[in-house]
Structure formats: structure tokens, C-alpha cells
Design goal:
alpha/beta; 12 helices; 30% helix; 22% strand; globular
Amino acid sequence: MRIIPGDRHDLFDLATRLLEPEVAAAMPAHRPIHVVVKPNWVQHRAESSDSWDALITSPDLVEQVVRAIAALTAGRAVVSVCDAPHTVADFEAILDRGGLRQRLARVGAEWPTFQLEILDLRRERWIQEAGVIVRREVNAEDPRGYTAVDLGSLSCLYRHSGEGRFYGADYDREGVNRHHCGVRHEYLLAGTPLDADLFINLPKLKTHRKTGITAALKNLVGINGDKNWLPHHTDGCPANGGDERPSIGWADWVETRLKPLVQITALKAPALGAPLYRLARRGGATMFDHDRPTIRNGNWQGNDTCWRMALDLNRALLFANRDGSLRTAAQPKRYFCIVDGIVGGEGNGPIDPEPVFSNVLIAGNNPAEVDAVAARVMGFDIERLPIVRRAFDDHVLPIASTPLHLLTCHDERVGAEIPVDEVQAAVRGGFRPHRGWPDLSAFRADAQRGAAETTG
């Protein structure tokens, strides 16, 4: 595990050194290696502007990782650069950022035997106008198909109190609750990531409204072909077993009743529902305004659903076979991660972050351990991030390979191997968290713990 200053290394040389042992260990004897490169391509633009530097994985990093794989294999490789962005994202516009499609094409041209493919893993795209979905289009699917991976009782959602009230990515709540019920907890994984000999995760270092941070663990939402198989929150508030919002006053009660009705109308009759939705946004102003202070849609530190889904996806990738069966803990998929924190994202992440010039890369072969380091680099308290802390839980299919209290990393910024709890933030004061996660600061938490120890 390494923290690497982004301005001290040539990206191609760095990627080559980091990936050389991984590629060598994963190389099949009698065929070209299949490598998946998974960036964070969540959207083609931020919500409030046309900016993208803090939004998606650096095109420079993606290009140089692909170039390094070509060089390490002498062109004898199949490389799939792929993601499943938000359903309303413009995939071609994402590839236009930094001229990435042309840059990757040049890499392929330099190695005649190199097989390079760029894949949009979504099965469906949504066309949105004025914030309302007005049309759904079938997308060109993963050429290797999709596999339903059922984690059953091994799922973090097994026996969750929100069963029957999960909200996915669509107005249709029946879909997500059909796939997560009783001992069924299944995810529709794209065949390309499942088939890979080596999975290279290239996430962006950002805050996240539902999980606090997004780095290695949360980036696996992009290997799922249908986002409505993914529970994002549980309808209700903690008082009634939900986590959509902290509490429900009279205005919230009206909203929770009216909003699903308008959404279902928009789903079943777009010609009628879309104008109704727009009218509600304009007239009600408060009901559907995502920028006002009200916490809704699971966008806060009390979300007890989304982190479970993210950890399930990591177990599905690491341990699922192509037919959906599960391997043992001794047989995880070969995996490596390089987190792009050259320009990080703070505040209203993951789709409207503000840039942070954090100037770091974080590299390692375990997503839980990488994210523990990432949280500290952001200046956050790991104990207040369930997506990170719970990734170290004892489990039949473990994600972490080292207990959190024993975890160390080589921090090139100080030139030493140090415990994870000694890792310093990349910028003074740390990243600014999403407003629904006000208690993430490691500095505040350390001070509180120190005061408690003193008074005790």
C-alpha cells in the first residue's frame, strides 16, 4: 500500500512499476491476458457546471495505465476499459474529456496485436429534460453478457430492517425489492469484469452524499448492469426503521406521500408525469429541490443501506464465478487499485464536487485497505465511515486481508512506512465533507477522543 505524490513521478513509469508484478502473476500460459480497467466515469459533467476535473478519473491516468499494460505484455493482451455511468450520463461526452478515446486509439495503434475495447456496461440509458426522465432507451449491452450473483445470507443486506422498503435507482420500487428479499440478495454483474484475469480499479478520490466517500469500494457500482438492482436507501426515518432522512415532520410526511405518486405517474405516463414533476419542482420549490438544506434520499451519515450494497458488490466481484456461483475466501479475483487524487473532489460529491488539489495517488491490492488510507488522506475519521470500517468485518468472504488496527502504508510524502491512523490529510484541514456528513473530520474526532480520555 502506497501514498504517492502526483508530481514526483511520470505516470507511465509509475503505472509500469506498480502493475508489473500484478500482470506477471495474472498472465495465463496459453492465451493473452484479459485486463479490465475500471475508471470512475459517473457523469460527463458536474451537476452545476461543465467542469469535470474533480468528477471523473484523470484521462492521463487511464491512458498511461493502458499503455503500461500494453508494454508489460508486449501487446499480447485484451484490455477492456469499462464503466456503467449514471443512466442519464452521455458516454461519448465522457470519452471526449481530455480526448481520451483518441489517446487510447493511439495506444492500440502502437501495438498491432493489442486488443483494446471501450465498453458502456449499462443495459439502458435515460433521456432527461429539466431534471425529469422523459425517455428510456435500450443500450448496447456488455458483449460478454450479464450474470445474476446472489449473495444470499452472505449479503450485508440479509435481515436488514429495511427489507421491502428499499429504494434503488428508479421510481419503480418493486424491482429493487424483488431482488433483495428474504435470502435473495442478487446483483446483475457485467460479464466483462467477471471474466477478467486482472481487475484494475481507477477510482476518483471524492466525497459521496450517501456513503461519505467514494474511492475503491464505492467505484464498483459501475460494474452492475442495472442500477435498479442496487438498494440506495430505505424509505422512512430511523424512528420507523428507515434511513431516507433523519426525521419526518409534517412537510416531510406530505412529501413522502406525494413524491412517489408523481414519480410513478412519470414512470407509467411520461407525457403526463413529466410536466407534473416539473410543476412540483417549480411550485413546491422545497419538495424536490436537492440543493436546499433538507436531508432526503439517503444523502446523510445515517444511511445504513448504501454502504451494505457497495460491500456486497465488492464481494461479488472478488468471489463470484461467471455462472454466479461463489468461490471460497482463498480464491479472490486478482485485483489492483490506483486512486486518482491528483485533483480530488469535496463538498457535494459524487456528481457535483468542488476541486481539491490534493496531489496524491493511493495504490494497493485490497479495496478496503486502500479506502482506509484514502479516508485518512481526506482527513476523515474511519470509525465514522461504515463503508470503510465495516469492510474490515470478520466474514466468510472477507474483503480486507489485514485487521484495521494493524494496517500500515508506505507514505512517500514522509518517506516511511506508517500506521494508517498516522496518515495526514493531503490538504490543510482535510476535504470538506458533504453537508449530510458533518461529523467526518478526523481532527475533531481525535480531539473528542483525547478529551474523553483526559476526563476519564
